[in-house]
Write a structure and sequence with these properties.
alpha/beta; Rossmann fold; 2 domains; seven-stranded mixed β-sheet; three-stranded antiparallel β-sheet
């Protein structure tokens, strides 16, 4: 694997030296193979993400100072409507997996009458830890290392009430697999909740980690790029119901998805999977 990574970096360096008329067809060809997609994803994405978060930490939030303060506040209330609107049916103890959370989860840590257990994960958690250390920042809840494609290797099926992702599924190498894994990790009657800027890959011209697009067509949740297209509403139909819609908040055009896992009989129920590990309550 190290040899492949080194070879990949060498090829990528050579590719960038080619004229634009040659780079484009080579990039298009690379997207059609698993190895090529992985190379493009890793080489274009990591430096882009670390640069953004370095600037965010340097300026304490870039254009969003309130965001900086909220992420570092251990008593910040949970305000994400996709989650808040479903808390009443999830019980007193609510476990939330935040997939692709970045160095500091955006989710609030408190909600009246609820005990929240927030578990943030990210494939760049180790790099983010080093970055936070450089700035002397101690996160209220530390992000753990886990690529979205490896969720089922770290967590048990049915372990969470909610699996949440904000502007991260479309950053994944294998985005459809990430969504399917999130569905498997929530209990029957639990939710996978997605909030993503519409067609981010197209808008960002597939730069950095922006390799996928989420969209809604005729009420169906679509996940696609220049090579692959997935109708998630249809693909998930045997195991989950999918409600997808667009919402413009005055700044961004969002694609929102509420995916509710069904029980074995095709119904969404309040069943819970018994926990076999000690839960830390936040």
């Amino acid at each position: 694997m190290p040899r492949f990574a080194a070879a990949g970096r060498y090829i990528w360096t050579l590719q960038r030296k080619l004229p634009e008329r040659l780079r484009r067809p080579l990039t298009a060809l690379a997207r059609r193979t698993p190895a090529g997609r992985k190379l493009l994803w890793s080489e274009k994405g990591v430096s882009h993400e670390l640069d953004f978060w370095t600037r965010w930490l340097t300026t304490k939030g870039l254009h969003w100072p309130d965001d900086y303060e909220r992420r570092l506040d251990p008593d910040a209330p949970l305000t994400e409507p996709l989650i808040v609107e479903r808390l009443d049916e999830l019980g007193d103890d609510v476990s939330v997996l935040d997939v692709g959370a970045g160095p500091l989860t955006i989710l609030g840590k408190r909600y009246p009458g609820k005990s929240l257990r927030i578990t943030p994960v990210d494939p760049l958690a180790r790099e983010y830890d080093r970055l936070l250390g450089e700035f002397g920042v101690e996160p209220p809840v530390r992000t753990g290392f886990c690529p979205g494609e490896q969720l089922l290797e770290r967590f048990r099926p049915g372990e969470f009430d909610v699996a949440y992702a904000r502007n991260s599924v479309d950053h994944s190498l294998d985005a459809p697999k990430v969504v399917r894994s999130m569905v498997e990790l929530v209990r029957p009657g639990g939710y996978v909740l997605l909030r993503h800027v519409r067609r981010e890959g197209e808008r960002m011209r597939y730069s950095g980690f922006h390799q996928w697009n989420l969209d809604v067509e005729d009420g169906r949740l679509l996940l696609w790029n220049k090579v692959r297209r997935h109708d998630l509403t249809g693909e998930l139909e045997p195991v989950a119901s999918v409600e997808a819609y667009r919402h413009h908040d005055g700044e961004e055009d969002w694609v929102l998805a509420v995916i509710r896992k069904l029980d074995g009989g095709g119904r969404g129920g309040p069943q819970r999977v018994p926990r076999t590990r000690t839960d830390s309550r936040t």
